Structure formats: C-alpha cells, structure tokens
Amino acid sequence: MIVKAIAIIVLAYLIGAIPSGLIVVKIANGKDVRMIESGRTGGTNAMRAAGWFAGVMTGALDIVKGVSSGWIVSWIMPGNAWMQVLAALFVIIGHNYSIFLLERDASGRVCLRGGAGGASCFGGAIALYPLSGLIIFPLSAAIFIFVGYASLTTMSVAFLATVIFIVRAITGASPWAYVVYGVGAQVLLIWALRPNIMRLMNGTERLVGLRARLKKVRLERKPLESIKENS
User: Fold this and answer.
1) Nearest Cα to 34, choosing from 103, 134, 93, 122?
2) Which of 48, 98, 124, 220 is 20 to 30 A (C-alpha) from 177?
3) Distance from C-alpha of 220 to C-alpha of 224, rounded to nearest angstrom
C-alpha cells in the first residue's frame, strides 16, 4: 500500500508539473511566458503573453491535470478518499512548483517556477465531485468579470470548493476528507499569491474583466473631456 501511495503522489506531482502555459505560449508565438508580466505559467499570464486562445487552452489543460488526479487514484487505489485528496493537492503543488522549471533566482538560489494553481484546483474539485464544476465555474467567472481581480478569482475556486464539500459532508453526501482538499488547496493558492494579496491590500493589483474595460474607457474619455472644456 505504501508503494502504491508513493506512486500516486509522484505521478500526480509530475502531471501537475507539466508547464502547460509555457508550452502553449511557445507554440503560439515563440515567447517564454516566464518573461511576461507575473512570470507565472498559468492561464491568465498565458493570455497576456499570447492572447485569449492561449489563455483558454492553458486553463483547459491545467484543469485536465487536476481531473487526472482522480484517474490516477481510480487506477492504482480505487475508492480511497484520502489518496484522492492527496493526489489532487499534489497536482496543485506540481503546477505551482514544477521540477521541469528548475532555475536560479536573482540571488542565486535554486527555485521551482510555475503558476498559482487555480485551474488545477478547479480540476481537482471536479475529480472529487464532478458537479462542483457547475457551481464553481459560473461564480468564479462572475468574480473575474465583475470584481475584476484574477488573483481573487483564483482564490475563490478553493473557497467555493471548500464550501461545497462542507455542505456535502454535513449531509453525508461525501467524506470530510474532501473538506481537507478545499482547505489545503486554499492554503496553497494563498501562499502562491502572496505578492498579489499585498497589491490587493495597497490597491495596486491589476484589474481585469469588465472593470478593466470600464477603466480603459474612462481614461480614453478624459483627454476628450479636457479638450471640450478648454475649447
């Protein structure tokens, strides 16, 4: 059993570590997504580096990585709730800290690059309870569009998953182990997004979605309004 558990964890980590965004952006326009904006390899940064299609493709592939955690466990240790949770969490860890993106930072320290884990977290929630996607996706999309912060959208995925699994555990529909997945995923996402949280606190986090569009329109109108006032 120990050997099987180790095999699941290693496979889940390695699948999570596949840098989807790096591959998609490199194919799309030859750029290195790690050199763009946040330097992360997730869907949001892939979108900045190579457009909406690259962002969507990266997000979809990262979701599949999370979903694959369920396939791994059903293949090696079917029906083991705790291994399902561990596999899903290790996919996120692999995504955020990829062994395939090993490098040295500016101070010479060895580090592992990756994403923030939102899409992989979403995929992991689907692996544990497929219908959770029908709740998490529209609510997270609404946060992205109307609240306008990609980092909050990412963190909302784990939060919503936790709420869903708490409700299901209380009603006896799923094991309490799944709640541990939601909480663990939330910790991993918050840790990965520490710089974004600091920017949220001081009001400098970059806007996305509808709020970003409205802000752009307001900025474009200001010069025209000033010209009218001076004419």
Assistant:
1) 103
2) 98
3) 7
Q: What Cα–Cα distance (Å) separates residue 35 from each residue in 39, 48, 126, 148?
A: 5, 11, 31, 23
Q: Are 175 and 196 in contact (CB under 8 A)?
A: no
- State pTM to two decimals: 0.90
Nearest to 118 by CA among 15, 16, 11: 16
Question: How many Cα atoms are found within 13 Å in the side-chain-facing hemisphere of 133?
Answer: 16
What whole-number distance in Å separates Cα of residue 81 and Cα of residue 64? 19
Q: In the chain, what are the domain boundaries?
A: 2-230
- Rounded to a whole number of angstroms, the distance between the first and last alpha carbons of the chain is 80
Q: In DSSP terms, which residues pair with 110 in a beta bridge?
A: 104
Distance of CA 23 to the CA centre of its chain: 17
**Digit-coded pLDDT (tens) for 81-116:** 999 999 999 999 999 999 999 998 778 888 999 999
